Amino acid sequence: MKSFQQLTTFAIAIIFLTTSQLSLLAQKEDLYESKKHLLEYLSNINTINRFGLISDAIWNYAELGMQESNSAALLIKTLEEEGFAIEKNVAGMPTCFVATWGSGKPVIGILGEYDALPMISQKPLTPFQSPVVDGAPGHGCGHNMMGTAGVAAMIALKKTMETYKIPGTIKFFGSPAEETIISRPYMVRAGVFNDVDAVIDNHASSDFSTSYGVNGTALISVIFTFKGRTGHAAGSPWNGRSALDGVELMNVATNYLREHLHYTHRLHYIITEGGEAPNVVPDRASVWYYIRNTDERVEAMYERVLDCAKGAAIATGTTLDTVIVLTATHQRHSNKILAEAIQANIELIGMPEWTEKENNFAKALQKELGERETGYPTEPQKLSAPPAIQVGGASSDVGDVTLIAPTATINFPGIVPGAVSHHWSYVTSGFGSAAWKGLNVGAKAISASALDLLTKPELLQQVKTEFVEYMKERPFKSFLPQGAQPPLEMNKELMEKYRDSMMRRMQVVE
Ligand SMILES: [Zn+2]
User: Is 426:415 a contact under the CB 8 Å cutoff?
Assistant: First the structure.
C-alpha cells in the first residue's frame, strides 16, 4: 500500500510535469522517497539475513579464479529469481555473467567479484591460525561479501525502480578471477561496458570509504617458458641444457634490474615448472611474473624483463620457448564527482552498530596480530585527496573499466581493522554477523549512489563530463597483446584437489 505522502508526491509530480523547473523539484521529492524505500528494504532483517547467508555460502565455496562455478551459480540464481535477465559465459569465461534489468538510458553498472585465494583456509571467527582444510583456498580479500553486496544492491534498486517507475537500466557485472586480474580486461575487450554511463565498484574493508584519482599499479601477468635438452645430471651433464638454469638466470637478471627501475614498480614471480627430479636435467621450466608499474612505465618495464629472459636463454644454451601474457590492466582512475556523490551516501548511511561480542572477537584477533585493540570503527572515513606521489602497490583489473566508463569504488566495513589482506586473519573475519552488517551498508551505499545517478540527470552529466575531459589526455588502449585469451584452465587442478573436502566441512554461524 502506498502511503498518503507517497500518493501526494505522485499527484504533485503529475500536476507540474509541464514546467521543467518544477518537475525537477518533484523529481527531487521523488528521489527522497525512493531512496528511503531503497534503504528500508535493505534495513529489513530478512534482507540482511538473506544476503548474509549467501555471502557465507560463497565464503565456504572459496573457489579460485576461473573455477567459481558454485559461487557464480548462486548469485545468478538469486538474480534470476528476482526477474533479472542473465547473460552467461560472457567474454568467453564460463564464470563471467551479466545480469540486466530495466530499459533505456541511463545505464548504470555495478561490479561484483567472488573468487578466493590459495593456501589460506581458516575457520571463521577464530582469532588464531586454524585452517578448515589444510592448504585449501580461503576468502582472504572479502570477495564473498563483495559479489553479494553488489547483488543485494541490484535487487534493492530494481524493487525501488519498479515502485517509483524510475526509467533506466541496471547491470551487474559478475567478474571472475579478480585475484589474478583476469576478467575485466577481457570483458572490456569484448565491449561489455560499451553502453554503460557510469560504474560503481565495491571492496570489503574495515573502513567505510571511497576515493578518487589514480591508485595502485598497472600490471602485466606473463609466463616465460624455457626449453632445454634433457640428460643424465651425473652421467653426462655436458649433453644437457637445463631449462631451469634459464629460469634461474633470468630471475638473477631481473633482480639486478630492480635497482634501475623507477620506485613506482613492483616485480615478483613464482617458478611454476622446474623439473621433476634432480638427476634429470629439466628440458622445460617456466616462471610466472607480475610486472607492475604506472600506466606510463609498465610496457617499457615489460620489454626490459623480456630482455632478461632472452639474455638468460643465450647464456644457458636454452631457448625462450613461449611468452604467454595471461592478462594486463591499467591503474585505477576513479571519478571525483562520482566519489563525492558516493561519499554523501556513505555519510548518510553511517557505520553499522557492532555488538559487544563482535568487538570482543575483533580485539582478540587484533591482539593475536600485535595490532592496537580498537574493535570495529564507529565512523566512516572522510573523502581524502589521492596521494601526491605514486609509490606503487597492488593492482585491480577494475583499472581498465575506469578508463571505459566513469567509475568509483565503495569500500565497505565488516573486516576487523588490522586483519591482513591475503592472509588467514582476513578469511576469519569475512564471515558471520559483522560481515553481514558490513556488506549490508555496502549494498546501501552502492544502491543509493546508483539511484542518485538514475534520478539526477545533472549529476550523471557532471560525472560524464569529468570523464570525457580526463580521457582526452589518455585515450584508452588495452595492454592485452593481440590474441591474448583468458586462461580458463587456471586453478582447475588445485580446486579439484580441495573441493570435496571443503564441501564436507562447510562452516555455519553458531
Ligand atoms: Zn580484493
Answer: yes
How far does the centroid of ligand 1 lie from the alpha carbon of residue 140, in Å? Answer: 8
323 φ/ψ sector (left φ>0, alpha ψ -120 to 50, else beta): beta
- Read off the DSSP letter of residue 125: T
In single-letter form, the type of residue at position 226 comes to F
C-alpha pair distances (Å), 265 with each of 160, 297, 298: 45, 8, 8
The model's pLDDT over 274-291, given as tens digits with 9 standing for 90+, comes to 999 999 999 999 999 999
Is the per-residue pLDDT at 20 higher than 70? no
How many angstroms is it from 144 CA to the middle of ligand 1? 10
CA of 227 to the centre of ligand 1 (A): 35
Q: Ligand 1 centre and the CA of 142: distance in Å? A: 7
Q: Quote the ligand 1 centre to 143 CA distance (angstroms).
A: 6
Distance, CA 184 to ligand 1 centroid (Å)?
A: 13
Which residues line ion ligand 1, judged by CB < 5 Å? 141
pTM of the predicted structure, to 2 decimals: 0.91
The tens digit of pLDDT for each residue in 196-236 reads: 999 999 999 999 999 999 999 999 999 999 999 999 999 99
Q: How far is the CA of 139 from the centre of ligand 1 (A)?
A: 9
Q: What is the pLDDT of residues 329-356, one digit of tens each?
A: 999 999 999 999 999 999 999 999 999 9
Q: How far apart are CA 486 and CA 500, in angstroms?
A: 26
Burial (CB < 10 A; 0-12, 13-18, 19+), residue 130, is: exposed
Cα dist. 505→73, 120, 136, 508 in Å?
Answer: 20, 15, 12, 10
Type and span of the H or E element at 309: helix 298-316
